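=== Structural record ===
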Amino acid sequence: MIAVDNLSGVESLGSVDYEPVWMFYRKSAFNESIHISDRDIAKLKINIGPVGSGTRTQALSIFKLNGLNGDAPNLLGLGNAEGVSALERGEIDAVILVDGFDSPNVQRLIRNPEIKLTSFTRADAYTRLLPYFEEVTVPMGGFDLGKNIPDHPIQLISTTTNLLIDNRLHPAIQVLFLEAAREISGNKSYFAKAGEFPVYMNTEAPLSEEAKFFYEKGTPTLMKYLPFWLAEFLERMFFLLLPFAAFAYPVIKSIPTYRTNLAKKQINSIYKELDKFEQNTIQTFDPNRRSEYIEVLNEMERRILRSKAAKLTTAECYSLRSNIEFIRNALEKQIIYKGREG
């Protein structure tokens, strides 16, 4: 785990593995009959790693929560391998390691019958007070079933290995990192289930937007069928144009309705014109102007046939033409109009 409190421009691609805090001590340091806690171990001659190391940073954070002095003379600054060797030789009483289960240093101490591992019985409290810690457990017999080592479950607190990036890193490169992390870290490990990593656990650094998309949507589907650069480009263009499509869809969908409404408006306009013509003709009918009246009706019908309404609103057009034909026939027969011939 890397402290990022004072770094700007840093984002996270997520965590890729657990790195538990291992607190080993020599069996001879305590009476076997008493209960040993992490607070007791911290008072021994203990190696917590060199200044500036992640191990020392985590150890001091734990000691601070317990009200212990981080400058106490019993706290040594040896390197991890050197501290493990000193513990095995009996030169120191305890050592803190922040490392994976498969670490050679951790495996050396697990197999040493003179060395015991401390259980963080208050692990839940640590994970609440230091949110970048997770709780993991070594089950009974988890190191050696045949010898039943350990003979009781051991609770540990764990940081996570995190992928931190410059926030200016190209999104396509971020996807490649995440794909590699899934391939390398996605398998089952001692503390992690298959597919558990990568995941966003450590919230000290903000998660990059590309990683958010990756965890929500997964690998771009097109990457299975196209070269990476092309798949990435098409994927980004799709999500860039998606908001525009969401806006444009109702507009495009409304275009046919809009055109139909315009056609109906045109039909209604001619209907009004026909109605006005009929009313005027009824009032002022002159048999000598019959051909003139019919020509007006013919022109109305020609306008309908030339218009777009004839194609968009066929039923309305036929209805209008039928009404025109009715009035034309009435004119030709000179019925219902004033002044009609007997």
Summary: The chain has a mean pLDDT of 84. Residues 228-284 form the longest helix (57 residues). The radius of gyration is 42 Å.
